[in-house]
C-alpha cells in the first residue's frame, strides 16, 4: 500500500511542477521577443514587419522568416539607439507623413470593404453588361493605298469582277492584313478609326465601299459579316468591375470628407519651386 501511495504522490508532484508551464499566457502582440540595451522588441512589431514585406518574401518558411525578422529588428533598434543627436525636423516630418499615409490607407480600406461587396459587383455587372443593349461586331477586309486615284482604280476593278483578296495581297500597304487578303478579323465599336468605322457600319454584308480617307491613307473596305457581340460572364470581368468600384467608392468618400471638412490653404500662393529647397531644414 505504501508503494501505491508513493506513486500517486509522485504523479501529483509531477503535475504540480508542470502547471506553471501550462498556465503561461498565450503570446500576444506585446510578447517580448528580444531586447536591445533593455528596450523591448515585441511579437506585434514582427507581425507588422512581415506584413510590410513584398509578397515573394512572405512566402519564406515561418521558422526562417521569424529568425530573420528578429535579427532585422535587433539591428534596426541598435542603429536607432546609436543616433545620439535626437530627431531632426526632417525626421519628425518623415514620420508624420508616413503615419498620415498609413492612417489614410487604413481609412480607405474600410471604405472599400464596405462598398465593394459581392452585391455591388453583381449590380455593376448587370448595369454594364447584362442589361446593356446588344452591340454589333464586324468582320471586314480592306485594301490600303496612298492615293484616292489608286483607291478608285482598285474599286473599279472589284466592280468589274476582280477578286478582292488577290487585289489586297498585290496592292495593300497594310502588309499585316495583306497576306490574308486584307482580312482584319472581328472588331467592335471604337476599335477602328472613326472614318473607317463609319464606312463599315454603313455597309451591308458582302458590299464593298468606295474610297475612304483616314490618317493611314485611302481604304477600300469589304464587309464580310456581322454578329451580335457575346457578353462576358461575371468572372471574366470581375477584376475590371472591382477596380472600377474601388475607384468610385474611394473618390466619392474623399469628395464627401473634403466637402464636409473646413479646408483652408493659406500656402497656395507660395512659389512651387520651394518644394526643391531642402536647405529650408537648415534655417
Could you outline the blueprint of secondary structure elements for this entry?
Layout: H1 2-22, E1 32-36, E2 39-42, H2 43-52, H3 62-82, H4 89-115, H5 118-130, E3 136-145, H6 148-159, H7 164-171, H8 175-178, E4 183-187, H9 194-202, E5 212-214, E6 217-228, H10 234-260
Antiparallel strand pairs: 1-2, 3-4, 3-6, 5-6
Helix pairs in contact: 2-3, 4-10, 5-10
Summarize the structure in short:
By secondary structure, this protein is of the alpha+beta class. It is built from ten helices and six strands, in the order H-E-E-H-H-H-H-E-H-H-H-E-H-E-E-H.
Tell me, what is the CATH class of the largest domain? Alpha Beta
Structural class, please?
alpha+beta
End-to-end C-alpha gap: 90 Å
CATH topology call of the largest domain:
Chitinase A, domain 3
Please state the overall shape, judged from the principal axes of the Cα atoms: elongated
CATH architecture of the largest domain: Roll
Mean residue pLDDT: 91
Helix percent reads 40-55%
Q: Name the helix and strand elements from N-terminus to C-terminus, one letter apiece.
A: HEEHHHHEHHHEHEEH
Number of domains: 3
Radius of gyration: 36 Å
Q: Report the sheet with the most strands, covering strand number, pairing sense and barrel closure.
A: 4 strands, antiparallel
Strand order of the largest sheet: 4-3-6-5
- Count of strand segments: 6
Number of helices: 10
InterPro entries: PPIase_dom_sf, PPIase_PpiC, PPIase_PpiC_CS, PrsA_foldase, Trigger_fact/SurA_dom_sf
GO molecular function, one term: peptidyl-prolyl cis-trans isomerase activity
Protein name: Parvulin-like PPIase
Family: Belongs to the PpiC/parvulin rotamase family.
